[in-house]
Amino acid sequence: MPEPTTPTSPGPGPGSGQDPVPAEETGRARLRRALLRPSRSQVVVAVLLAVVAFAAIVQVQTVEDDDTYAGYREQDLVNVLSGLAGASRRARAEITRLETARDELVSDTDAERVALEQATSEADSLSILAGLVPVTGPGIRITITEVTGRVRADTMLNMVQGLRIASAEAMQLNGTVRVVAQTSFTDAEGGLVVDGQQLAAPYVVDVIGDPSALAGAMSILEGPRVDLQDDGAEVEVVTLSSLDIESVRQPVEPEFAQPADPQ
């Protein structure tokens, strides 16, 4: 009876080009790849372990913090809470006081600013009315030419007063004399003396204000134009959108009047 034979696996053929790989080396290679290349599941597990460790540390710290008051009696805790409440009230009161002080400072600053602006505006207006500063603005130019007679000082003064009633803000005569409330007009040989200056016709009066109101004041019935024509003069009135008055008066120190103390 023939003996049984154990079948053997066919080896690689002579032309296959494959070398046999020992089973032990294949296992080591797989272990190496597993260590050097962690899979997605391994990464997830590592992250979860890190989160759990962090939570455990926080919990331990919280427990340690809570232990600060663990040995306090009830009355001690009440005293601590009362102290904290009192400190909170004092802090809120201080905040309120500081906010009130801040608001008062802001209010005082605003009041001072408004007062300063108002005083500056009033000073500017008074300087213009007193003829102390050059001015510019819309207005009219009146040219008075003597034809058959001479213009009298009274006629010129009446014209100036009529223009003031029409809200003239600044006036200038012949480019040299700033006409204000104290300006004087006197008849003289060959013309007029205005504030001590000798002037001769033609008289050119520059007036700043509302052009339509000023022109209307010159043309009213029995007004300045008629009076000037009665003196033998021709009158031309031109409205201007911009007019410069350069002449100024020097401030005069009062001899008797002094500012009164505010009540």
UniProtKB/TrEMBL annotation:
Residues 1-13 have a biased composition (Pro residues). Keywords: Membrane, Transmembrane, Transmembrane helix. One of its GO terms (cellular component) is plasma membrane. Residues 1-25 are annotated as: Disordered. The chain crosses the membrane at residues 43-60. PANTHER family: UPF0749 PROTEIN RV1825, UPF0749 PROTEIN YLXX. This is Unannotated protein.
